[in-house]
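Issue: ligand-bound run for flavin-adenine dinucleotide - logging full I/O for the record.

Environment: standard queue, default settings, no custom constraints.

Inputs:
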Amino acid sequence: MAISRRRALQIAAGAGVVAAVPAVNHIRWNAKDFTREDYLTETAVKSPGKQWRNWSGIERATPQDILSPASEDELASLVGSTKTQIRPVGSGHSFTGLVPSDGTIIDMGRLSGLYAFYKASQTATFGAGTRLRHAAKILSDVGMGFPNLPDIDVQTLAGSFSTGTHGTGKTLTAIHDYVSGFRLITANGEILDVTHESHPELFAAGKVSLGALGIVTQYSLNVVPKFNLTRKLHLIKTNEIIDQIYELADSHRNFEILPLPNTGYSVVITHDIFDGDVEGREPNQDDAFIHDMEGLRSKLGWWPWLRRKAFNSYVSSELPKEGPAEQSTDEYWRLLATSRPTKFNEIEYHIPMENGLAAIKAINEIMNKRPDAFYPIELRFTAQDDAWLSPFNDGVRCSIAVHAPVNEPYEFMFSVIEPVMRKFGGRPHWGKLHSLKKDDLLALYPRFGDFLELRKDIDPQGKFLNSYLGGLFGESFDA
Ligand SMILES: Cc1cc2nc3c(=O)[nH]c(=O)nc-3n(C[C@H](O)[C@H](O)[C@H](O)COP(=O)(O)OP(=O)(O)OC[C@H]3O[C@@H](n4cnc5c(N)ncnc54)[C@H](O)[C@@H]3O)c2cc1C
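Outputs:
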């Protein structure tokens, strides 16, 4: 979130407030090292040329090759002739082990850009390695856009579609639902043009494929005329707003709520269509705010009452009494996505809408009992689509995410958070931390068994498997 006027928060986290409380607690808490034991910094990487790592650094690989083909033909002959396992990579922003391989990692970055645009049918064809922001800018230049975007936009089209990446909006589907066709290179190097008409099953399976069916080189997408939004950000006491999530999701195009652990407050962000002259986006201060929240945790985490009081005095002294803490108007793609330089690890589950309120309350309660927690929790809405592995293929779902700083422990996501998400009927985000395996997924997805059959048909030798996918699919994997 971008919240300006943070001076009181910085003061509260500083020595002034701390001096008023017993020194022994303060010293003990301040001496605490929050860093997890297995945290590896960049400098620990031995041979960077051969090393692949994901955005947060928890997934690493030393493959035989990392290749970046310049054309579809080059890629097709490479796939057909390569004897090792192959994994395609986008921008490496997934937290799960989808990409690591001891064989060949194929970086799709050079197959990017706009290949075709048809104004009359409102369709555009892009290289699969095109980043979302790049695609949105190109479309904007021709007066078009995507209906929605996720929280960041540096992911590739292929990477984000393949994991069911979503934004927020109860009437807005996840972004793979814009796909009207794609071109797939299969394990033997064959090039297939796939649409609902030509290959109905492969089309439904291939929109969210985890990169397990082959390598997509290009997508045809349904696009819409571009539009402007007004973005409003409010800080509201969690217990005064949390029961209204369904009404807010009904009354705003894009709605999300981010309860801030151990503060009693939530950030509420809405986006709605704006028809006037836009004024541009306020400078992004999310990172600075996260650092202030960390400062508050580090100084006052041992005393929850004082921490809440400090946050409360920040809200009452620095933020407007009426109206939003921030308001911007701009083109949709400049407002919906934000840059996130401060790294974290994340779990996210998609909960059936009817359980969303109970689930967010339960997760909020758990996080409020963890004095080390300071990263916002996040709740978003996504509409139904029909991809076989789309977490949203049985109705509207509420996505609930929990984050941990990149250098701090995240095991609690599996031991404490995941069981609650599962109790409420959640399906995991394919690109974020979870521990589910084949039997769990068969129970959650009616078409999961069909997906496994189709995968075996199209890639019987398992060229596109790695050990992580082997676990998800219940297939033995020999590197
Ligand atoms: C800071 C941050 C913010 C995020 N915000 C959101 C959010 O708001 N909403 C959300 O839903 N998710 C979010 N994510 C998760 C992210 O969108 C997904 O993990 C997404 O898959 C990342 O895209 P990528 O291009 O980095 O793909 P990668 O992580 O590189 O790959 C993802 C999958 O796509 C496959 N793949 C890549 N290219 C191809 C290809 N050409 N053909 C076939 N398969 C391919 C890979 O093999 C892999 O299985 C966020 C992640 C981070 C780190």
